[in-house]
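Quick note —
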Amino acid sequence: MIRRRVLVSGTVQGVFFRDSCRRAAADAGVVGWVRNLPDGRVEAVFEGDDGPVEQMVAWMRRGPSRAVVDGVEVVPEPLEGLLVFAITD
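Predicted structure written out below.
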């Protein structure tokens, strides 16, 4: 089990990034959360088995079809034991 915090910059707000991420996370079987940041980036945390979490990190590098991802920062973090995946404020 691993945890990754991912910060994505570019045209990533107003393009259904969070909802698409929530659906992709459900399909991958990972837990965590995703939110918009005031500076225009999207931030997400993923917890789960290595393969599915890395699958979500790869998904974040491209995002939904209307997104234009310019940069991605991935930070390993200690597990918190999250139970669901949510869109947060």
